[in-house]
Amino acid sequence: MLELKDVCFTIKKDGEDVNLVDKVNIQIPRGHFMAIVGPSGCGKTTLLKTIAGLNPESAGALYWDGRNLSEEGDLDPSEIGYVPQFSVAYDPLTVDESVEAATRLRVKTRDMEELDQRIDRVLEETGLTTIADRHVKVLSGGQKRRLGLAMELVSDPKLLLCDEVTSGLDPRSEREIVRLLHDLSRREGRIVLSVTHSLAHLELYDSILVLHEGRVAYHGPPDQMNHYFSVHDTEEVYPKLASQTSDRWQSSWMKHRGPYYTKLDRNRTKLVDSGGLHLPADPEPVPTQEVTDEKEQAAKEKPESEKIRTPGFFAQFTTLLSRRWRIFFRDRGQVFLQLAILLCFPVLVTLFKDNALGQIANLSETRLGNVMQDFQEQQVVRQDQVRVGSAVSGIVMFQVILLALMASNNSAREIAGERSIFEKEKFGGLRPTAYLASKIAFLACLVLAQSLWMAVFVNLFAPFRGGAGGFESHIIFLLLVNGGMTAICLGISALMRTAEQASLLSIYLVGFQLPLSGAVLALPDSVEGFTRPFISAYWAWSGSIGALEPKVLEAVKTVVDTSLSTREACLYTLGFHIAAGLIAAWVGTRRHQWD
Ligand SMILES: Nc1ncnc2c1ncn2[C@@H]1O[C@H](COP(=O)(O)OP(=O)(O)OP(=O)(O)O)[C@@H](O)[C@H]1O
């Protein structure tokens, strides 16, 4: 039994406490199907989230089979299913793949056979078997809602919470979904609570909870609702609600609820007697106030071997990583963009190769004695140095900036773009560390491919003019700048509320790299000291320039006023950027961000 006792959810508005859910008292037995209805903004979703534990109750308490959930711990993620208003499936995947991923993330199965059985059962229960190989993007609204339900049913939740799962559907699909929810509540004593705007098909529910400004105005059998509100038609209930204040409705309900609860009990007894409701073998748990014997309570729990257990870190990590690659390869636009960037950006760099390949004349060991000739010789050397130094420095900076651009394209939307799905999966037991690790593994592959190809391709046409180990050093700095910017943009993606915000901030970050690196124009000392630590492009450029052979290094120094840093300083700073980005991503993924 689910029981709410004086449950409130309070927020601060203009310094004042406002109860979005106000002293809700209800008892819902196992195998019960309840609709939560009420005018828009009356707090239906807020109440559902409070029951789910997404909004911690500000006062009162919730009990599950007599267990105080706030004191003795929430329900296990596998015991509760929450179907939100938004789609929780990825468009490029098929129905079968979506349900399989949901199962692998939520349920630890013994073997493939058990996994397949579970998937098949859920597909059958939700009527999706015949369209199991269809892609999510081509599903109808009703089929998407069924899929959302299927992805929750994989863990056999005892409590299924549905938020507006029928909104926007045609009347036939709406009835089918309500009928499906009704049937789901008839199995294994599952409680199904459904928030809905619609007052159609109310006869399929066991009880209707009418909310008004966060307060209970009615909770009783569907066929008694019109009588209680003294209306002829259900459609007249909402206008009637507006006729008096919510606290009057609340106190009126408290006064008159007795007979309605008696009717609910009678309906339930009839249902059980007629065999229309199959409760689990366990005896129906007694209400909280009657729970005295802890041993008796423990006996009602499923044996350990039958309990659904959440898969470990590694299992979730591999499921997420393989799903990410599958989504990547199915999205042709994304693959094409990544390939175009990977191949074209290095080509762009090689357009500037000619000057970088030029020779730098040597100054004679001895002075010629002729001032004019000495001057002309120095001029020639100086011109070579300017030409070669500018080109070499420019090419390195161009590589660095293009890799930074690729980095922002890699990760700016990676988390923010799927935040709602991630939050939903986190609620279902996904470990944020497994999620983050899968993102890092996926992005590391992109970073490796992009950086190595950039270094090797450009080197084919404009060989890096490094000393011993210079090219290897250059590769490391290209990897580090791409890795650092990818990590920072991933951090931004995890911290921002929307994908648009994350993309914009990441693009600004890349845009400022070139002017603030000092590689083009030296910055004023006051600005440089402040900005330099944060500019990855400077450290990668400086590290690579430091790996040039001495003569070319001298040439670069003649054209750039900005001082170079030691190799170690560049390595450590870029390493720090990677660490900072990953820490930000870790903090962001742990944060609760369910709108
Ligand atoms: N965290 C929050 N902070 C401030 N206001 C909130 C918060 N959550 C909900 N609200 C406000 O509380 C009210 C109830 O919101 P809720 O989404 O629960 O209503 P609802 O009955 O589900 O509405 P609808 O049927 O339109 O979806 C709304 O006015 C909403 O703006």
From TrEMBL:
It is found in: Membrane. Residues 275-305 are annotated as: Disordered. Residues 292-305 have a biased composition (Basic and acidic residues). This is ATP-binding cassette domain-containing protein. PANTHER family: ABC TRANSPORTER G FAMILY MEMBER 28 (PTHR48041), PROTEIN SCARLET (PTHR48041:SF139). The keyword Repeat does not apply. Keywords: ATP-binding, Membrane, Nucleotide-binding, Transmembrane, Transmembrane helix, Transport. Its main location: membrane. PROSITE patterns: ABC_TRANSPORTER_1 (PS00211), ABC_TRANSPORTER_2 (PS50893). GO terms for molecular function: ATP binding. Residues 2-238 form the ABC transporter domain. The chain crosses the membrane at residues 333-352, 440-462, 474-495, 502-523, 571-589.
